[in-house]
Amino acid sequence: MLLFFFVYVIIENMSKKVLEKLEYNKILEILERHATTYIGKELALNLIPSNDTITVANLLKDTTEATTLIYKNGNPPFFPIANIDIHLKMLESNGSLSIKGILDIANILKLSSDLKEYCDLYTENLYINPSIEKEIFNAILDENTINDKATDALYSIRRNIKKLEDEVRTKLSSFIRSTTYSKYVQEQVVTIRNNRFVIPVKQEYRSEIKGFIHDISSSGSTVFIEPISIFDLNNDLNSLKIQENIEIEKILQMLSSLFYPITDELKSNINIIGKLDLIFAKAKYSISINGVEPTINTEKQINLVKARHPLIDKNKVVPIDVNIGENYTTLVITGPNTGGKTVTLKTIGLLTLMACSGIHIPASERSSIYVFDNVLVDLGDEQSIAESLSTFSSHMLNIIGIIDTSSSESLILIDELGSGTDPIEGSSLAVSILEHFHNKGALSVVTTHYPEIKNYALTKEGFNNASSEFNVETLTPTYRILLGVPGKSYAFDISEKLGLPKEILDNAKSFIDNDTVNVEDLLKNINDDKITIENEKEKIEKLRISLEIENENKVKEEQDKLEKVKIEARDILLSAKQEADRVIKELNSSNDLKVLNKSRVELNSQVKELQRGITIKIGADTAPIVKQKPVHKEYIPAKSMSSEINVIGNTVDEAIFVIDKYLDSAFISSFSSIRIIHGKGTGALRTGIHKFLKTNKHVKSFRLGTFGEGEMGVTVVELK
User: Fold this and answer.
1) Which of 573, 580, 577 is nearest to 600 (CA)?
2) Residue 340 lies in domain
């Protein structure tokens, strides 16, 4: 049997080293903490990205559906369960389980029932058996205790045990308090040694009491004696306890046998529970990082909008925008060596791996990823002292491995390409390697300091530059990425800020030819202009969002006013109806002309007051009134009338109108109770219905449904 029902098509060539470099394992550790069951935790820690587009799309949709369920119904009802593999082997050989073993399996059935009631996501194949659950939980109180009433025989045995124990205690208590023996006992207590009742006697008086010594205290000052007078009673008591143990074994065998026919179903349930636990762990993690389901594209593009590295504090991390694959396949990121470039590489790689594992990513909903056949990485200092390899040699071995492994469907991420050797040779190698990846059709994102690579990316089709923004004043990266603009190293600026003497700086600048200086100045101007434009775009975006929120608030305010008017109008109608019912009742029960005339005047007055009240309430608000067309329901004869009514999907007003008519018919039909099905939802419909039921003349009492009745989704009403 498969470990779980969905099959991952894994990225087979992805090494453990790549996953560790991108810190994917840290995401799995967080995911594991969001899981509850042992199998869910195991699946989380062993989660591997898929390279199958359909699989990835389905995994992401599962996470999205689970997230929606949590927002709608609260957290799923998971609780820790035991590994029952050893219990199942015992059952398959028709063996008998311990109390704990039976409870462990019963908890699997209980969790299955709870999950099936909570949602429809992969729960249709969960096996449930309420009768077995009930029988076990009625028979077993906890991991150490069988209920007295598990069988009639056990009840009788335990009743006799208690009766006999009381008799022994009474006899011994009388014995140790007697004037004859009280001076011999160490303490006036009755205790148990070797499953027999005994009394503590002072060592020097041990011969004064006839009986059997069962124990001696560590100090030797006390001996525990079973007086001969209760010897037969203790024997009878032990005999009953043996009978008790035999009866308990029979009960355990009987309860264990309930599981014999369903071992395969239990195995299947465990797999489904593990799968669901993993899916909901992803959902909980998504909520914690404000994650979204990215779009899966088939055009081999990465488009990350407002993307954040999930392992950096979300209150501190700076979102980045990265687009690659639409107009170019190779992105060269340059800028000072302060960490911003590497974080960008890791963000791109990690978010891709997360998405391909069905994990939502911390980014805008406009983000899109491609399902690559492999993600290949060269990050960090790879110097190997053990193998006498330099940093350059170690990096080059990694890159050769990437060249051999990559295809047109691969994503390649390389940090400081060409570094660690002669700059001229290093930059030439870097350009040649990038050309190779470009010609192969792979998507590549690399960081570098070499101006030759920046210049090449400026002119080569299919290449693009990006810069990691840097604040020269504070000497810190802003972590913003500016697409289309190569970055400066800011070596002179940083050195000056740090206090390098001016004459050394001036001398250094003199070694740079004028063309290079002009190009650097041009890049700086372009960079500054780009930053200004990005800042303006950000201000405009914030203003747009602010205006949208303001508009939404105004619309909500108008809707709230309208809803308030509708509720008040409904309350007036209900009040008038109740008063009219009272007057009509008086009219029907009285033959007195004066009383009848008085009732008629009161009824006319109520109608006029009702019309005036509604006019005032509606006239007091300028919000448009949408007149609801009521659903008319006539009296239904008892023979054809159901004892329950379903109002799921109705507004509060619609539901109350229908329920009011239904209660009239139910009352006339002499129903003693009815059920109102309103669903769980947000609780607003349930609250409105309960408020109405408190005032209805036919209602004696009402309550929420219990287990098996629909619980929070149903209200049971007792009628007068």
Assistant:
1) 580
2) 295-490
